[in-house]
Design brief:
single chain, mainly alpha, two-stranded antiparallel ribbon, 14 helices, 2 strands, 74% helix
Amino acid sequence: MLYVYNIQHKQYVLNSKFTAFSVTPMQKYKSFVLPAALISGYFLRQICAVLSITVPYVIFMILVLTFSGVRLSSLRQVKLDLWLGIFQTSVSIGLFRICKSLFNDEVLAQGAMMCVLCPVASSVTVVASMLGANPARTTTYTIAGNLLVSVLAPLYISLISTQEGDNSFGSIFIMIFVKIAVVIALPFFIVWFIQRFLPALNTDIARYKHISFYLWAYALFVTIGQTIDFVVMRWSESYENVLWLGLIALIICIIQFATGRLIGRRYNDTVAGGQLLGQKNSAMGIWMLNTFLNPIASAGMAFYSIWQNIFNSWQIYRSAKQ
C-alpha cells in the first residue's frame, strides 16, 4: 500500500493505484531474476568481490524507496512481532545447546544458532510485497527485529565465545549496534523527516518504489557471488563441517519459513510471517561469525543465503503464474 500526500487537505491518503503490483512487460520475468543472480554469481564471483563495496549504498537506496511507500508515523507493533521475536530469542540459543550435545562440535552449534539469530534481511519488504504481504507489517518488524538482534547477539556471543580478545557484551554490542543502526536507522529517519516536513517529495520518491526490486537483484548477484566464493574457500579448510552446515542450514531454512507462515496465518498475513522469520540478512550473520566466533561456522549462513533465495525464486515464480 502506498500513502500519498494530499496537498489540499494536508494529510496522507491511501492511493489505491499502488495497493497492488501492476502487470508490466517486465513483471513476468521477475521470477527468473533470482536464479539468474545465483548462476551469474557463481561464474562471476571474483568480479562480485570487487563490486561488494557498492552493496551498502544499494541497500540504503532500497530502504529509502521502500520506507517512502509506508507511512512511518503509523507503524505499530503487533502480536505477530512478539511471537517472531520469541522464536528468535529462544530457538537460537536452544538450537546451539542441542547441536552441541548431539554433535559435540562447537562449529556446527554456532552455525545453527546464527541461522536463527541472524536479523531479518533489510530488503525483506521488497520480496514480501511482491508476494502480497502488508508492507507496513514487514517494515515494522524489519526495524524491531534488527534492534532485538543488536541486543541478543552480543549477549549470546559473549556467553558462548571461546575466542581470544575482548568479547565482552559491551564491546560486541557497540560494534553490532553501529553496523545495524547505519543500515536500518539512517534511511528510516531520513524518510521520516521527508514524510514529516517534505511530504510532496516523499510522494515523488515513492513513485519509483518498483526500482527497489532491481536494485535488490543487483545486491543479490554481488552477495551470492561472494557467498559461493566463500563456501569454496571454506570447503578446503573443513569439507565435512561445510557439508553438515549446508544440511543444517537447509533444515533450519525450511522450518523457519514454515513456522513463520503458521504464525502469520493467525494474524492474517501468512506471507509476512514466513518472510520475516525465514529471510535473513546473511551478510550480517557471516560478518558476526567471522568477527566474534569460528569463521568456518559462517559457511552455514552462506548456505542459508542460497537456500532462502532458491525458495524465494520459487515463490515469485508461483505468484507470477497465479
